[in-house]
Prior knowledge:
B: 41% strand
Amino acid sequence: GAGVSQTPSNKVTEKGKYVELRCDPISGHTALYWYRQSLGQGPEFLIYFQGTGAADDSGLPNDRFFAVRPEGSVSTLKIQRTERGDSAVYLCASSPGGSKTQYFGPGTRLLVL
Amino acid sequence: AQRVTQPEKLLSVFKGAPVELKCNYSYSGSPELFWYVQYSRQRLQLLLRHISRESIKGFTADLNKGETSFHLKKPFAQEEDSAMYYCALIEGGSEKLVFGKGTKLTVNP
């Protein structure tokens, strides 16, 4: 079946601009996660959704970052006033209810110039 | 503070040799431990988790609570094992994965 998909695969933007990154989880997966991976580092947790609500947003670095999942399926990560330090690969993962196994998407590579 | 430590950034072995990728964690409770793998130009995928006690692709990992370690082992490495390996944990009551920085394994012919 189809795995987690993320669009766009690459995004280049200028400092100060607004970007949206999209994640389509595996159909039926109730949990959705966003991670950020900087060069040479492991993925770092940003936010976790259970259904439509953000159950844990403790990893969002500041208020420029926001994520939504209005219908409990697709999620959008929104970054305002982008900074060069936001450049990273943004990973999305999903998991079925009651499982700790997370299935990852291919990631969106964000470059802020 | 780093909660998952993978001391080797790079590890190189020859085909057929044993391989061990080290992982240590710091957490006072009972975490769930995982190994994820990322092959070249592929997405991150689960290799194994400690509670399933499986052997996947010849790899095993034993949770040692006394040493707070979860080392990944394979007795005979294959060239197709070359990849980036990440150790990760989920703390009790949490759902988020906490990753180490990863070890790049290269298996030479």
